[in-house]
């Protein structure tokens, strides 16, 4: 195949894949814009700016809905490209197989429940004197809880016996941090993974079980 033919076909395949997961790539586009904005902020302003959009105990007690939404629109650390890869591998795959509405519902459930439970655990730790009172205003933003839920729910998209190996890997990744000095975010990731696994009734009959040895077809544009 000549090069001038391969390039348009490759671009068409990429365009078709992106259109097959509109929610994933719209979200990724928002994260790109907000990440660029962060790079134009001074370090001091950035920390204060993000803290006001953080799902810490203080902000959750004042503006719970606003910060639950806003916290999912920013990446702490300012590195967008790794998330572009992760979104393509996990979020786009889930959205294509579950449909945008159900994919989004899994994301919301994982993000909200993991946030509330992990922050509840942090509040308990503060009240017991295990964590300092400064943790009321800790920085807690990002998209990792939703990602953990999606990584877990994709277990049901993989055909057995490979499903069991994938499930073991998911549980290992999100359980291992709990075994030594866990933070509230470690608790949140573990809860989010459990939420994703608990979404089986939501996704039953909607996933297209795939053999990992097979190449996923690219949808026609």
Explain how this protein is built.
This protein is mainly α and 221 residues long. Helices cover 66% and strands 0% of the residues. The chain contains eleven helices and no strands. Helix 7 (100-127) runs antiparallel to helix 10. The two termini are 21 Å apart. The relative contact order is 0.14.
The average pLDDT value, as a whole number, equals 88
Order of helices and strands: HHHHHHHHHHH
**Main beta-sheet annotation:** none
Shape: globular
Computed CA radius of gyration, to the nearest angstrom: 19 Å
- SS content category: mainly alpha
User: How much of the residues is beta strand, in percent?
Assistant: under 5%
- Low-pLDDT ranges: 211-221
How many beta-strand runs?
A: 0
Question: N- to C-terminal separation?
Answer: 21 Å
Helix content: 55-70%
Query: Number of helical segments?
Result: 11
Question: What are the defining features of this structure?
Answer:
mainly alpha; 221 residues; 11 helices
Write the SSE topology.
Elements (H helix, E strand, L loop, with lengths): L2 H17 L2 H18 L3 H9 L5 H6 L1 H7 L10 H18 L1 H28 L16 H10 L8 H14 L8 H14 L2 H4 L18
Helix pairs in contact: 2-6, 6-7, 6-8, 7-8, 7-10, 8-10, 9-10
Care to give the gist of this entry?
With 221 residues, the chain is mostly helical. It contains 11 helices and no strands. Residues 211-221 have low confidence and may be disordered.
